Amino acid sequence: MTEQENLDYFTEILKNDPASKAFAPLAEGYRKTGQLEKALKIALDGVSKHPDFNSGKVALAKILIDLKKFDSAESTLLEVVESDFENLLAHRSLGEVYIHKNEMGKALDAFKAALLANPLDKMSTAMVTKLESISAKAFDAEVFSISNETKTKTEKLYKRKNLSIHAALSYIDALISRNNYTTAGEHTADYLIRFPKNPELIKRQDYLSSLKKHNPRLSRADALSKPEITKQKLKTLNSAFIKIEEQMKTRPELAKG
User: Fold this and answer.
1) Quick one: which of 52, 56, 61, 54 has its CA closest to 21?
2) Which of 4, 95, 138, 140 sits most deeply, having the most CB atoms within 10 A of its CB?
3) Contact 164/135 with Cβ under 8 angstroms?
4) pLDDT < 50 stretches in the chain
5) Dihedral over alpha carbons 136, 121, 242, 235 (to 10 degrees)
6) Distance between CA atoms of 237 and 257, rounded to whole angstroms?
7) Phi/psi class of residue 148: alpha, beta or left (left: φ > 0; alpha: ψ in -120 to 50)?
8) Contact at 8 Å (CB) between 47 and 57?
9) Rounded distance, CA 158 to CA 171, Å?
10) pLDDT tens-place string over residues 216-245
């Protein structure tokens, strides 16, 4: 079926039933063909009739992105992921918004959330890898472009601590993924000076400390096989199960398969 045939098909459905949710694929079809104003009108009208229809909101957000209305797209997508965390397309679109806004830390978080929704999503995996690489390079550029001969260790540390927390976390993760635990530990400690209660930094510090207790030269896979770390992972997993059970009690619709 051609794009025009798709447009004709969904147009007919919406004509016969103006309250139909077919507005979402129809708006998407017009977006793909570059008819953005028409797509926007259809999406806005449909979302007004179906304010809880997340697929319609995602379709609207994608149109807003193409129109470069990134703030509006962001607020729309945040509504979706708040009510439906497993909405993969919403997380990916949110990541796209943040890239356009040059907020790479938030973009990385969005694509990581997409992987939580679907760990097998290849696009999100690729974007996480790319954004972590970008963050690591930005970190290196911020910290290490200054000559060791002209700047003291304290001055370099000051610059490192003033990097954004998102960029720092991404850099630490990149170091861990390369088994560079010593450097990862140093950067984690540096940032804990400025953000002593940041849960993400504390999580990484605990993880790195657990590795160090056994053998700092162990591979990540070997270290994670140690009983103490396995116990910690099981404790975290059990806590997650408890939270899921609590949600199931308050939101029984989640149990439907």
Assistant:
1) 56
2) 95
3) no
4) 139-162, 214-226, 229, 257
5) -50
6) 22
7) alpha
8) yes
9) 16
10) 444 444 444 445 545 555 566 666 666 666
